[in-house]
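Raw record, unedited: Riboflavin synthase
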Amino acid sequence: MFTGIVEELGEITAVETLDDACRFRLRGPVVTEAAKHGDSIAVNGVCLTVVDHEGDEFTADVMAETLNRSSLGALTVGSRVNLERPTAVGARLGGHIVQGHVDGTGEILERTPSEHWEIVRISLPAGLSRYVVEKGSITVDGISLTVVDAGPDSFTVSLIPTTLALTTLGIKQPGDPVNLEVDIVAKYVERLLAAQGGTK
Protein backbone atom coordinates (compact mmCIF):
# COMPACT_ATOMS: atom_id res chain seq x y z
CA MET A 1 0.00 0.00 0.00
CA PHE A 2 1.12 3.56 -0.76
CA THR A 3 0.04 6.97 0.45
CA GLY A 4 0.52 9.10 -2.66
CA ILE A 5 3.38 11.11 -1.15
CA VAL A 6 6.03 11.06 -3.90
CA GLU A 7 9.53 10.46 -2.56
CA GLU A 8 11.51 11.52 -5.60
CA LEU A 9 11.41 12.38 -9.27
CA GLY A 10 13.13 9.49 -11.02
CA GLU A 11 14.10 8.87 -14.64
CA ILE A 12 13.67 6.10 -17.22
CA THR A 13 17.18 5.04 -18.29
CA ALA A 14 16.31 2.11 -20.58
CA VAL A 15 13.25 0.56 -22.23
CA GLU A 16 13.19 -2.99 -23.60
CA THR A 17 10.09 -3.81 -25.66
CA LEU A 18 8.92 -7.43 -25.44
CA ASP A 19 6.13 -9.26 -27.33
CA ASP A 20 3.39 -8.55 -24.80
CA ALA A 21 5.21 -6.51 -22.18
CA CYS A 22 8.17 -4.22 -21.64
CA ARG A 23 11.01 -3.87 -19.19
CA PHE A 24 12.00 -0.52 -17.71
CA ARG A 25 15.25 0.45 -16.07
CA LEU A 26 14.73 3.41 -13.76
CA ARG A 27 17.03 5.66 -11.76
CA GLY A 28 15.96 6.63 -8.24
CA PRO A 29 18.62 6.96 -5.51
CA VAL A 30 16.08 7.35 -2.70
CA VAL A 31 13.75 4.46 -3.52
CA THR A 32 16.59 2.06 -4.38
CA GLU A 33 18.21 2.46 -0.98
CA ALA A 34 18.01 -1.04 0.54
CA ALA A 35 15.81 -2.19 -2.38
CA LYS A 36 15.80 -5.90 -3.17
CA HIS A 37 14.28 -8.31 -5.68
CA GLY A 38 10.51 -8.57 -5.20
CA ASP A 39 10.03 -5.19 -3.54
CA SER A 40 7.23 -2.91 -4.74
CA ILE A 41 7.81 0.63 -6.01
CA ALA A 42 5.09 2.89 -7.39
CA VAL A 43 6.04 4.44 -10.74
CA ASN A 44 3.67 7.27 -11.71
CA GLY A 45 1.15 5.61 -9.44
CA VAL A 46 1.56 2.09 -10.83
CA CYS A 47 2.76 -0.57 -8.40
CA LEU A 48 5.71 -2.37 -10.06
CA THR A 49 7.93 -5.17 -8.76
CA VAL A 50 11.69 -4.78 -8.55
CA VAL A 51 13.33 -7.44 -10.74
CA ASP A 52 16.93 -6.22 -10.53
CA HIS A 53 18.68 -3.57 -8.48
CA GLU A 54 22.14 -2.16 -9.07
CA GLY A 55 23.43 1.08 -7.60
CA ASP A 56 20.77 3.75 -7.85
CA GLU A 57 18.83 1.94 -10.61
CA PHE A 58 16.24 -0.82 -10.66
CA THR A 59 14.49 -2.87 -13.34
CA ALA A 60 10.77 -3.64 -13.49
CA ASP A 61 8.65 -5.65 -15.92
CA VAL A 62 5.34 -4.19 -17.12
CA MET A 63 2.72 -6.57 -18.54
CA ALA A 64 0.29 -5.77 -21.35
CA GLU A 65 -2.67 -5.17 -18.99
CA THR A 66 -0.73 -2.44 -17.21
CA LEU A 67 0.47 -0.88 -20.46
CA ASN A 68 -3.11 -0.81 -21.78
CA ARG A 69 -4.66 0.62 -18.61
CA SER A 70 -1.99 3.18 -17.71
CA SER A 71 0.21 5.77 -19.39
CA LEU A 72 3.41 3.78 -18.79
CA GLY A 73 3.47 2.67 -22.43
CA ALA A 74 4.16 6.27 -23.45
CA LEU A 75 7.36 6.48 -21.38
CA THR A 76 10.69 6.68 -23.19
CA VAL A 77 14.32 6.98 -22.15
CA GLY A 78 14.71 10.27 -20.30
CA SER A 79 11.08 10.45 -19.14
CA ARG A 80 10.74 11.70 -15.58
CA VAL A 81 8.56 9.63 -13.25
CA ASN A 82 7.17 9.89 -9.72
CA LEU A 83 8.57 7.22 -7.39
CA GLU A 84 7.30 6.04 -4.01
CA ARG A 85 8.08 3.03 -1.82
CA PRO A 86 5.24 1.29 0.04
CA THR A 87 4.31 2.73 3.40
CA ALA A 88 5.53 0.86 6.46
CA VAL A 89 3.05 -0.50 9.00
CA GLY A 90 2.73 2.05 11.78
CA ALA A 91 3.99 4.94 9.63
CA ARG A 92 2.02 8.16 9.24
CA LEU A 93 -0.53 8.10 6.41
CA GLY A 94 0.50 11.39 4.83
CA GLY A 95 -1.82 11.22 1.82
CA HIS A 96 -4.61 8.64 1.51
CA ILE A 97 -4.88 4.91 0.87
CA VAL A 98 -3.35 4.24 -2.55
CA GLN A 99 -3.08 0.73 -3.99
CA GLY A 100 -1.01 1.46 -7.06
CA HIS A 101 -3.78 -0.07 -9.22
CA VAL A 102 -4.58 2.46 -11.92
CA ASP A 103 -8.28 2.79 -12.84
CA GLY A 104 -7.67 4.66 -16.08
CA THR A 105 -5.88 7.58 -17.66
CA GLY A 106 -6.83 11.21 -17.90
CA GLU A 107 -5.37 14.09 -19.85
CA ILE A 108 -4.12 17.47 -18.73
CA LEU A 109 -6.68 19.88 -20.20
CA GLU A 110 -5.46 23.24 -18.91
CA ARG A 111 -3.17 24.88 -16.40
CA THR A 112 -4.04 28.14 -14.66
CA PRO A 113 -1.08 29.62 -12.78
CA SER A 114 -1.46 31.86 -9.74
CA GLU A 115 1.09 33.63 -7.59
CA HIS A 116 1.59 30.77 -5.12
CA TRP A 117 -0.15 27.75 -6.66
CA GLU A 118 -1.53 26.41 -9.92
CA ILE A 119 -4.94 25.01 -10.84
CA VAL A 120 -4.82 22.04 -13.21
CA ARG A 121 -7.88 20.61 -14.98
CA ILE A 122 -7.74 16.91 -15.89
CA SER A 123 -10.16 14.86 -17.98
CA LEU A 124 -12.02 11.91 -16.47
CA PRO A 125 -12.65 8.68 -18.38
CA ALA A 126 -16.27 7.53 -18.63
CA GLY A 127 -17.26 5.56 -15.57
CA LEU A 128 -14.87 7.19 -13.09
CA SER A 129 -16.65 10.48 -12.43
CA ARG A 130 -19.03 8.89 -9.91
CA TYR A 131 -16.05 8.19 -7.62
CA VAL A 132 -14.69 11.75 -7.74
CA VAL A 133 -16.19 14.30 -5.35
CA GLU A 134 -15.35 17.85 -4.35
CA LYS A 135 -12.79 17.86 -1.52
CA GLY A 136 -12.31 14.11 -1.92
CA SER A 137 -9.02 12.35 -2.65
CA ILE A 138 -7.70 11.19 -6.01
CA THR A 139 -4.33 9.89 -7.13
CA VAL A 140 -2.82 11.53 -10.23
CA ASP A 141 0.43 9.95 -11.49
CA GLY A 142 0.87 8.53 -7.99
CA ILE A 143 0.32 11.87 -6.22
CA SER A 144 -2.33 12.08 -3.52
CA LEU A 145 -4.36 15.20 -4.30
CA THR A 146 -7.53 16.89 -3.11
CA VAL A 147 -10.23 17.48 -5.70
CA VAL A 148 -11.16 21.17 -5.97
CA ASP A 149 -13.97 20.91 -8.51
CA ALA A 150 -15.61 17.70 -9.77
CA GLY A 151 -17.49 17.70 -13.07
CA PRO A 152 -19.04 14.94 -15.20
CA ASP A 153 -15.97 14.54 -17.41
CA SER A 154 -13.17 16.46 -15.70
CA PHE A 155 -11.91 17.68 -12.34
CA THR A 156 -9.45 20.24 -11.00
CA VAL A 157 -6.68 20.07 -8.43
CA SER A 158 -4.68 22.88 -6.84
CA LEU A 159 -0.93 22.34 -6.80
CA ILE A 160 1.36 23.91 -4.21
CA PRO A 161 4.95 24.91 -5.11
CA THR A 162 6.37 21.72 -3.55
CA THR A 163 4.21 19.51 -5.78
CA LEU A 164 5.12 21.58 -8.83
CA ALA A 165 8.84 21.36 -8.05
CA LEU A 166 9.11 17.72 -6.99
CA THR A 167 6.68 15.77 -9.20
CA THR A 168 5.81 15.24 -12.86
CA LEU A 169 2.82 17.58 -12.53
CA GLY A 170 5.28 20.46 -12.53
CA ILE A 171 6.38 19.62 -16.09
CA LYS A 172 3.37 17.99 -17.76
CA GLN A 173 1.48 20.14 -20.25
CA PRO A 174 -2.01 20.15 -21.79
CA GLY A 175 -2.40 17.00 -23.88
CA ASP A 176 -0.12 14.89 -21.68
CA PRO A 177 -1.63 11.70 -20.17
CA VAL A 178 -1.76 10.99 -16.44
CA ASN A 179 -2.60 7.87 -14.46
CA LEU A 180 -5.69 8.05 -12.25
CA GLU A 181 -6.61 5.96 -9.24
CA VAL A 182 -9.88 6.82 -7.53
CA ASP A 183 -10.59 6.32 -3.82
CA ILE A 184 -10.78 2.58 -3.10
CA VAL A 185 -13.25 3.19 -0.27
CA ALA A 186 -15.81 4.60 -2.73
CA LYS A 187 -15.51 1.52 -4.94
CA TYR A 188 -16.02 -0.87 -2.02
CA VAL A 189 -19.05 1.06 -0.78
CA GLU A 190 -20.59 0.97 -4.25
CA ARG A 191 -20.02 -2.80 -4.54
CA LEU A 192 -21.48 -3.49 -1.10
CA LEU A 193 -24.58 -1.39 -1.76
CA ALA A 194 -25.11 -3.11 -5.11
CA ALA A 195 -24.88 -6.53 -3.45
CA GLN A 196 -27.62 -5.44 -1.03
CA GLY A 197 -29.81 -4.10 -3.83
CA GLY A 198 -29.11 -0.46 -2.91
CA THR A 199 -27.88 0.54 -6.40
CA LYS A 200 -28.27 -0.73 -9.91
